[in-house]
Amino acid sequence: MKYLMLFCVIMGFAVTGMAQDKDEKTTVQILADSELTITGDTNINKFRCEFNTSMLERTKKIEFRVTNSNVTFKDAVLSLNNMGFDCGNKKINKDFHALLETEIYPEIALELLEVNMKDRKLAIATIKISIAGKQKQYTLPVEVRNEPVNCFIGHLKLDINDFDLKPPKKMFGLIVIKEEIEINFNLTVKNQFNELSAK
């Protein structure tokens, strides 16, 4: 979960319009003011878990191919440490990690497969998410902003049943986490290939 960071970063490249129909490699930088959250509901209230973006790799090397408005990727995988999420309360944090089975599966893996630029302000991304040993593929729209820096905004709703996750129950089953959660991201990135795109 975001990002998701990796596919948002590389869309900055697609917008700049570099060389096409050949394999490319570049390095991108995720800026500190990026945000990634997971939100959800129980039968009595809502919860919000924020990811500490300082735990991300600040720079990432990426291999990809651009064909017209489509960008495909090879081994574009980003791992997020589950312990980077803070839900604002120790008990909620404990339940959140119980849900993700953090002791057995300490990371969430995100693999960017493809990005299609509908126009300069909208992209459709295809990603594969791995949680608790299960994988699921999703397609989602992403808003693209390019000034003053590259910014990518999006939301993805997940059903925890897709990953066979078993939410903890409290007070003899009276408090129950609902099955749908939402990933929200607002990411700012810096491209390290600007000098190439200018050629």
Please state the overall shape, judged from the principal axes of the Cα atoms.
elongated
The oligomeric state is single chain
**CATH architect. name:** Beta Barrel
CATH topology: Lipocalin
Report the total helices: 3
Task: Determine Rg (CA atoms, Å).
Answer: 18 Å
The name of the CATH superfamily reads Lipid/polyisoprenoid-binding, YceI-like
* CATH top level assignment: Mainly Beta
Cα distance spanning the termini: 35 Å
Query: How many independent structural domains?
Result: 1
Spatial ordering of strands, largest sheet = 1-4-5-8-9-10-11-13
The unreliable regions are 1-10, 12-19, 193-199
Indicate the proportion of strand residues: over 45%
Short description:
With 199 residues, the chain is mainly beta.
Verbal overview:
With 199 residues, the protein is mainly beta. Helices cover 14% and strands 53% of the residues. It has one domain (5-197): Lipocalin (Beta Barrel). It has helices spanning 5-16, 90-100, 194-197; strands spanning 23-30, 35-42, 46-51, 59-67, 70-73, 77-81, 85-86, 107-119, 122-131, 134-145, 150-159, 169-170, 175-191. The chain has an 8-stranded antiparallel barrel. The termini are far apart.
